[in-house]
Amino acid sequence: xxxxxxxxxxxxxxxxxxxxxxxxxxxxxxxxxxxxxxxxxxxxxxxxxxxxxxxxxxxxxxxxxxxxxxxxxxxxxxxxxxxxxxxxxxxxxxx
Length: 95
Fold this sequence. Notes:
mainly alpha; 3 helices; about 0% strand
């Protein structure tokens, strides 16, 4: 198995275990995003109800449990970065 295949498997494994840290343990520890806490301390309004630029607000997918939303968002994120990286690689090789 070559290095890039092993790296992809490792990244996908991390994506699939990310809900343990991002959802389950964060809820158990009572973790809140630092920027959310700062905005609350400054009494800034929450615009997410009025202006939502992403279908994956807080890494959730409507109709799926939060844990599955983390995985879906992670797979999409890794895919986007992989496509960008492969595109740049192709451009560099053409020169």
